[in-house]
Amino acid sequence: QVQLVESGGGLVQPGGSLRLSCTASGFTFSSYTMSWYRQAPGKGREWVAHISSNTRGTVYADFVKGRFIISRDNAKNTLYLQMNNLKPEDTAVYYCYAHSNQDYWGRGTQVTVSS
Asked: What percentage of the chain reaches a pLDDT higher than 90?
């Protein structure tokens, strides 16, 4: 059974940091490109960043460049998103997404940035 389970979300003050994790099972994690998406209240889901299967290629949305870092540990079947200098507009549910010949979504983890 395929599972993507996000964790690490929570409430943080503006300027703070969080590290999200996404643990995968049920498929060959190391063969999949992995991405983070987010969905803010009342808005559509938007792409945040992705990382290639071999970890060499990373791409970021402009609104997180210089603040977020995507990484993965293929030995642990885990994807990460280090989020620094968080802003209130980063408040959203964050989802991990695996894509190759098949696509899989996690259920999301809530990130709230507020003072």
From this structure: 97
